[in-house]
Design a protein that fits this description.
- By secondary structure, this protein is an alpha/beta fold.
- The chain contains ten helices and five strands, in the order E-H-E-H-E-H-E-H-H-H-H-E-H-H-H.
- A five-stranded mixed β-sheet has the order 2-1-3-4-5, sandwiched between helices.
- The radius of gyration is 26 Å and the shape is globular.
- The termini are far apart.
């Protein structure tokens, strides 16, 4: 082996240059959201996907599939999509309504999510009893009464029309944008229901929803959307009128809340208009 120093002419050659390791490309965390519905859920979660995928392409990526199958078939479809993907999904979220499906199917899907989860992929049963419209309503009010899902639509229409946003339709593409300012309220209300339903099977947890678990997971990376309506205090300072809509499944509690609000405003006016 020669101990002579390299020739000056050789220093510029590639084989003489020190090896530089290329930095490893950090892969984003891939999430798969598979929904039973083909309109409402894909529209809602699709808006979330568009925000996250465009804002954090190197951190987290979402894929949405509206399958339109019953609960048990939905899980099998989700697993097939996950197994066939080259992405390696870290989380697979199976979003479904209980509707009128057999209780054993509703509960079996949740059990499969636990038993089929691995160190690489976690399956989540994101059910709503009876439907995802419950999750929408929880953005505005806490609902504990076991109402039939058909009653949720008129309530949502009442809220939207009050805000000048028309009526509620299952295929509305702007529901996420409308609901985002009230996301923390929805999570709090859903967690209250979850506590009440502790120990119950999904088929018996009525009303109840697990959508908040998915939103809590994504909340930290969601871009800030439109701010919630202005607070009461600044409006009173400007002398503007404020109109409130109370939605509650208990009329007595709604009336109490109304009178408490009137009292609170009267106290605030003493400071705004002494």
């Amino acid at each position: 082996m020669s101990l002579k120093p390299p020739k000056k002419s050789d220093l510029d050659k590639n084989w003489m240059k020190a090896r530089q390791d290329r930095p490893k490309k950090i892969q984003p965390e891939y999430h798969l959201i598979v929904t039973e519905g083909t309109e409402t859920e894909p529209a809602y979660f699709g808006a979330i996907r568009d925000i996250i995928n465009s804002s954090y392409p190197d951190k987290i990526q979402l894929n949405i599939h509206g399958i339109g199958n019953n609960t048990l078939t939905l899980f099998q479809k989700a697993k097939q999509l996950s197994d066939a993907s080259a992405n390696g999904y870290r989380h697979v979220w199976i979003v479904y309504d209980t509707d009128d499906f057999p209780a054993e199917h509703i509960n079996k899907t949740a059990q499969l999510c636990v038993s089929e989860s691995t160190d690489d992929t976690t399956y989540h049963a994101i059910w709503s009893n009876q439907c995802i419209e419950l999750w929408f309503l929880l953005h505005f009010s806490f609902l504990q009464a076991d109402l039939h899902r058909s009653s949720y639509w008129p309530k949502l229409t009442e809220i939207l029309s009050f805000q000048g946003l028309g009526s509620y339709e299952k295929n509305r593409m702007d529901m996420y944008q409308i609901l985002y300012p009230y996301l923390d309220t929805a999570i709090t209300n859903a967690e209250k229901l979850e506590k009440i339903n502790t120990g119950k099977f999904p088929s018996d947890a009525a009303p109840g929803t697990q959508v908040h678990i998915l939103l809590k997971k994504l909340k930290s990376v969601l871009s800030q959307q439109t701010a919630p309506p202005a607070a009461i205090f600044p409006l009173l300072q400007k002398g503007r009128s404020v109109l409130f809509l109370f939605i509650h499944d208990n009329r007595m509690l709604a009336e109490r809340a109304f009178y408490c609000l009137i009292y609170g405003i009267s106290v605030m006016r003493r400071f705004v208009h002494p």
